[in-house]
Amino acid sequence: MVRLPRAVSRLRSPRLTSQLGLMLGTAFAICLLTGYISHAIQHPPGWFFWPSRPVGLYRVTQGLHVATGLAIVPLLGAKIWSVYPKLFRWPPARDLAHGLERLSLAILVAAAGFQVLTGLLNIARWYAPMGFFFTVAHFWTAWIAAGAILIHIGVKLPILRRALTAKVRPTPAGDGWTRRGFLVTVGAAIGVVTVATVGQTIRPLAGISVLAPRDPRIGVQGVPVNGSAASAGVRDRALHSAYKLELIGPSGTKLLSLADLAALPQYTASLPITCVEGWSADAVWTGVRLRDLTALVGGGADDVVTVESLQENSPYRTSTVEQPHARDPLTLVALRLHGETLDLDHGYPCRLIAPNRPGVLQTKWLARITVGAA
Predict the structure, then answer these.
(1) pTM score, two decimals?
(2) 187, CA 20 to 30 Å: which among 37, 53, 68, 345?
(3) CATH number where 253 lies
(4) At residue 73, does pLDDT exceed 60?
C-alpha cells in the first residue's frame, strides 16, 4: 500500500520546492499567454492582430489554456505541501523586507487559488457561486498573480539557483518516498487529469476523458450547445414568418428574408467551433459568404463588420468582425449545419461562423449586419 509523505518529512527541501516552483511557473506562464490571447481576441487593443488562418489556431491556444489550468490543480497542491510548514512560522515578519516578501507570498497563494477555483467553475458553467463577472475578474487577477510570481522569483532566485545546481543523491524521506518518486507521482497526477479532460478538445480522446465537463460528440446536430434559444429569449422572433436580416452599408440598407438568403450563392466550410470553456467540435457549415452580403450594401475589403443578435441584454449581443475574418471566404452567415437546416439552438434562422474565433463571438440568431470603414 502506497503511503503519502507525512506532514513532517525530510522530503521537503529547497530543491524539491524549486523544481515544483519551476514547473508551476511554466504552467502559469502558458496559462497567462493563452488566456491573454483569448481576452485580446474578444477585447482587442489597438495593436493586436489575430489572423483568420489557420482555422484551428484558437482551438489549440484555448484548449492548451484550459488543459494547463487543470494540470495546475495537482501541481499547486504539491507546491503548497512542500512549503506549508513555513507559511505558519512565528513571527510572521522579522523585518520590513521579510514582511513584504510574506505579503507577496500571501497574495500569490490567494490569486493562484482564485484563478484555479474560478476557472473550474467557468468550465463547469456554474456561475451561481460567483457574484461577479467571471471574465473581468479572471483577467485582472491573472495579472496580480503574475506580478506576485515575479516578485517571489526575484526574492527566491539565489535559493532557486543553489537548489537546482547542487548535486544531490536520492535520499528516502524515511517513509519510503524519494524526491524523484514524489515528482513522478505529481507528474502522473497531471497526466491523469490531462487525459481525463483534454478529450473535450482532442476528439479522439473524448471516450476516455471521463472528467471533461463537455463531450464534443454530444449535442444538437452533433455539436454541443451552451445557450439555448429559450434561455436567450429569442424563440418567437427567430421563428416569426416575417423575419428579415437587415444589412446596413455605405450604399444603403437591404432587408433579406430567409428565402432571399437561401437564393444567394451557397458555400460550405468545415470549421471547428471552439468555446472559451475549453471544448471544441468539428462542424460542416453551409451558407452565404459574409463578404458577399456586405458587398450588397457597398462593403469593401478594408471594412470591418458588426453583427448583432436578436438576443437582448447580453454582453455578447454584438460582435465586431475584423478585416482578416470579414474578407475571408470561409466566413459565412450559416443557414445549415451538417447538411441540415440550422437548429434553433444553434442560431436559426442564421448565424455567424468564422475561422479561428471563439465560439462566444460566433453570433447566433442574427438580426443586423452593419458595414463600416476601419
Answers:
(1) 0.90
(2) 37
(3) 3.90.420.10
(4) yes
